[in-house]
Request: fold
Amino acid sequence: MIYIDGQLYENKKEARISVYDHGLLYGDGVFEGIRIYNGRAFRLQAHLDRLFASARTIRLEIPESVESFGRIIGEMIAKSGKREAYIRLVVTRGVGDLGLNPLKCSNPTVIIILDDISLYPKEYYERGIRVCTSFWRRPPADCINPRVKSLNYLNNILATIEANDNGCQEALMLNKEGLVAECSADNIFHVSRGALFTPELAEGALKGITRDVVLELAENIGLETKECRVSLFDLYDADEVFLTGSGAELVPVIEVDRRTIGNGVPGPVTAQIREAFQREISR
Ligand code: PMP
Reply:
């Protein structure tokens, strides 16, 4: 089911936008990826807050309110009858001419896609995945701010190609200083001496909604949590590593750059947080 600027389409072949849309021509826009669990959009308010913050940063005025997004998404979920699904919410600069000036784009395009989620294979969660550090760095905030979830994903896509080439399931991305920022589409955590660490946002990480949930759950469990500067050495030396994202949820990492993490199997703290996460999404 697809919503474009007030119109709902049941047939995806009929849901079309202009080739002059600057989302297509220039990657000029913002988006969110939201999970539906038990017929409800998980952490919808946090996703909408991030969408509006991203839009404000790129000077894009979203022509809908948080409330109307909530209503439209609620209607789409009800109409689809789905209990488990995925929503992709996209707002582009809209239709303009072939120049890049956004002044020529008078109406942002609002797209909401509700579809089935293609999940990572079960074995990734049972056995863990391998990641490798990409040559491509996350851009500094004064180039393309990694806090903005924009339609410019080429940086992340190039890293993904590299992970594919190396037979890895995700690419680890550093910032220009060589510190760990995040992965191509996931945030990263590590466990060391019983405490939980994740790169601080200033090091080039997206403020992941799942990241925030994990920090919350870890504190409830009584784990010490730290958002800090993380080096590759910290990861190589960690007892456990895992990734978080709306699509991936929590996925254990058993190898970073050919260094085995812990015992080479998903660790107990990761399992404990995964269980808490499962409880959280089924509430
Ligand atoms: N970092 C990047 C670059 C992402 O694209 C995403 C979303 N897939 C994440 C982290 C994880 O964020 P969230 O938990 O909000 O899905």
The pocket of 4'-deoxy-4'-aminopyridoxal-5'-phosphate is lined by residues 33, 156, 182, 185-187, 206, 208-211, 244-247 (CB under 6 Å).
